Amino acid sequence: MPRFGYKLMSEEHGPRPLVENAVAAEAAGFDFAAISDHFHPWLEAQGHAPFAWSVLGAIAQATTRLELSTGLTCPIIRYHPAIIAQAAATVSLLAEGRFTLAVGTGEALNEHVTGQRWPAVPERLDMLEEAIELMRLLWDGGVHTRTGKHFRLNHARLYDTPPQPIPVIVGASGPKSAALAARAGYGLMTTAPKPDLVQGWREAGGKGPVYGEVTLAWAPSEEAGRKLAHERFRFSALDWKVNPELPTVEGFEAATRTVRPEDLAESIPAGPDPDVHLKAIRQYLDAGFTHLALLCPGDDQQGFIAFAQKQLLPALRALPIEQAA
């Protein structure tokens, strides 16, 4: 059976509300929570970007059952992979194994802040594969000194390592990143219901869970939902060949100036009707996704969580096995 999660949008909420939302999601019956790991929001209207790893530590202590993951962390530029290896090991210990590390090649929006060069996609993929190897090396214990193609370790040892391996999910948006996910990952993460991408990952040897996130503009009316999606999520109208390359919030504001609310109608269901949202979710289930994080933009997260608890989650868990596989 698929598992259903709640997306913690660090771009839209401060640290304490994020913890409160995670606690509410656990009480509502969500299986997991995935947090975005950003230095900046996408748009000014979102207005937040706390440090995801501090928030994860607080959530690990405030919950008992909820599984946790990043979605996604880029361990290659803003962070050195050794730092993420330590952070992930610490969160896994705090959460008593309830942690999955999902990684990707990042966006210039977040990674440019340290002044490092922003490499082209093939180089970022190569860096990510090496970073995953280094993190697993450190999680295995022992002292390591290593000079790789992109990263160095100098007498590095993690003294607090989790007893079980940390699952590493790799984000993908095309065939090359899907092939990397098949080679180096425990599973796949992507944001669109693309059966061809999932199939290509499996044909490349990919096994394990397939993670996705579904944006649902739940609101008292369809009009209000359309307005909310446009205000907080219109960046999603840009192609993922564009989103990783824009380095500033101002750039996203300018690039989305001509996006209209109706331009998001096909990709983001809006309003209070659960059937509208369930239809969008089923596209992912039909494409072979096993783990879906439900994402609702806006401030009323308690309202959305209650809506999911009462109407979405029961309906999803009542689906026949063949529809929900």
Which terms summarize this structure?
two-stranded antiparallel ribbon; TIM Barrel; 40% helix; alpha/beta; 8-stranded parallel barrel; 325 residues; 12 strands; 11 helices
Q: In words, what does this structure look like?
A:
- With 325 residues, this protein is of the alpha/beta class.
- It has a single domain (3-317), classed as TIM Barrel (Alpha-Beta Barrel).
- It has eleven helices and twelve strands.
- It has an eight-stranded parallel β-barrel, surrounded by five helices. A two-stranded antiparallel sheet has the order 5-6. Strands 10-11 form a two-stranded parallel ribbon.
- Helix 1 (15-28) packs across helix 2 (52-62), helix 2 packs parallel to helix 3 and helix 6 (175-184) packs across helix 7.
- The longest helix is centred in the middle third of the chain and has 19 residues, at 121-139.
- The chain is globular, with a radius of gyration of 19 Å.
